[in-house]
């Protein structure tokens, strides 16, 4: 007899979502976690990073208060208070951690702290901080091992002058660095470049690919709006940049790099390495348990069920080679639990998931880019609508923005791409249109409130009819 219905290995978003969903279905669950439940997302990633992005937004807004008719006392200039921003961030993380821990307890999930490894007989052996061990058996095991920042060979991370996003979101520094180099222009690099730039830090972004801001993911037209906005606010960007060996000096770090224009170097106070994340699967007992890993260290799964190569063992979240997003881990957890229950889960359609980058302005998308749709053989029709003439955007003073819809000619919406204020909240209308394979005319017939940012979505859909209102 097994100790539990399900043993969950890892307490990040995939792990706690698995535990909560399974427990709500009446299953008995044990969750093994080496540190704190919540994982990278809660403690080092999504939540603290977005709290710092919001601090940057507030600072930016206050700095431009006069433009909105709010006068600061003469001679008073807003200044970033980095310790206060970090204190608020820590408070948000603490409250969420407390709430999550309480929810797991109420659902009667047995949280076991320690390092868990799969065993040859399909159980999980847990080694606690005191060195003691215990073995937990389940009718199924769900691996949720998570991920860690990728490193650049030869570039030592010291956590002070050379850091990853994990250290940046958990900094206890008394002040911001004055000069920062961000290596990598993907989602993580772009978000931190946005924070530093808006907080007044002299920031340089170095990216190996030709399009340095969000080189992979959103439609290029949308990414370019963000790139221009960041540059206008002071970010220095170098594409096709190959970074050399860092040189530590008494005053900072010298970062040499080469671009098609030649060799160059900059001196900064801190280097943020943000070149992506890797699965943490090297010490989970995969080989002993007969769980196959890919050559990049991801757990190999059947994406329709999330089953691994070993019967009764599933894997979800960042340890699987799927989009490294917390909400994707949630969805995969539901698929795994429902399959265990003998139901017919709806697999995640990874080509149509919602993506968000919480920069200023925000970027969000779902479905195909224009270029990808053409490569896939679709005869496409594309329409765009700028936020420059949107009344609500003008009121907010945030007119850097664009809605771009990619549709099959005389067919459904294939891709939705948006950049602008609150794109993270506005994009779900487009996400639903992509996933329901809605026709642009069907969305265009829906009424959008005025004045609102969402009007830009409705008006872009209307233009597929050959007619338009304001566009």
From TrEMBL:
- How is the cofactor bound, as the UniProt entry phrases it? Binds 1 FAD per subunit.
Query: What cofactor is needed?
Result: FAD
Pfam families xrefs: Pyr_redox_2, Pyr_redox_dim
Q: Where is the Pyridine nucleotide-disulphide oxidoreductase dimerisation domain?
A: 353-459
The EC code for this enzyme is 1.8.1.4
Q: Which reaction does it catalyse?
A: N(6)-[(R)-dihydrolipoyl]-L-lysyl-[protein] + NAD(+) = N(6)-[(R)-lipoyl]-L-lysyl-[protein] + NADH + H(+)
Q: Which UniProt keywords apply?
A: Cytoplasm, Disulfide bond, FAD, Flavoprotein, NAD, Oxidoreductase, Redox-active center
Q: Which PROSITE patterns match?
A: PYRIDINE_REDOX_1 (PS00076)
InterPro entries, per this entry?
A: Class-I_Pyr_Nuc-Dis_Oxidored, FAD/NAD-bd_sf, FAD/NAD-binding_dom, FAD/NAD-linked_Rdtase_dimer_sf, Lipoamide_DH, Pyr_nuc-diS_OxRdtase, Pyr_nucl-diS_OxRdtase_dimer, Pyr_OxRdtase_I_AS
Its subcellular locations are: Cytoplasm
Keyword Oxidoreductase present in the record's keywords: the answer is yes
The misc remark on file is: The active site is a redox-active disulfide bond.
**Family stated for the protein in its record:** Belongs to the class-I pyridine nucleotide-disulfide oxidoreductase family.
Record-given protein name: Dihydrolipoyl dehydrogenase
Which organism does this sequence originate in?
Answer: Pseudonocardia charpentierae
The primary gene name is lpdA
